[in-house]
């Protein structure tokens, strides 16, 4: 399913692909145990089809994801979705933020949310 999402391109002019009533994305300020305001999580340059004006936020989401800051990563991807709802890679980021089997198998709620994200990105 992730491969299908990766094939969809981002277009910030598209109608909203997400139904706010179906998927409850985490939103708000990023709260991290790592670097604080003005600091960076490392150098991230994830080559993906993301509108240029949202590339920095997307890369921050990737850095947070790779720092195991799953809830905070989802907030950054949700920010991109809010501004560019046609950006499939932001939905991929949300899915990755909710799938972290290193710690525990995904819960039924996480699996359901992942399915909703995939369906919304189509």
Q: What do you see in this structure?
A:
The protein is an all-alpha fold. It has a domain at 54-122: Serine Threonine Protein Phosphatase 5, Tetratricopeptide repeat (Alpha Horseshoe), CATH 1.25.40. It is 47% helix and 0% strand. The protein is built from five helices and no strands. The chain has helices spanning 2-7, 55-66, 70-83, 88-98, 108-121. Helix 2 (55-66) runs antiparallel to helix 3 (70-83) and helix 3 runs antiparallel to helix 4 (88-98). It is globular.
Q: Describe the global form.
A: globular
Total helical segments: 5
What do the pLDDT scores average to?
75
Q: How would you sum up the major sheet?
A: none
Strand content: under 5%
Q: Total strand count, please? A: 0
User: Quick one: CATH class of the domain at 54-122?
Assistant: Mainly Alpha
Uncertain regions spanning at least 5 consecutive residues: 1-18
What's the architecture of the domain at 54-122 in CATH terms? Alpha Horseshoe
What share of the residues lie within helices?
40-55%
Category by helix and strand content: mainly alpha
CATH topology of the domain at 54-122: Serine Threonine Protein Phosphatase 5, Tetratricopeptide repeat
Order of helices and strands: HHHHH
Rg on CA atoms, Å: 14 Å
Give the distance, in angstroms, between the N- and C-terminal Cα atoms. 10 Å
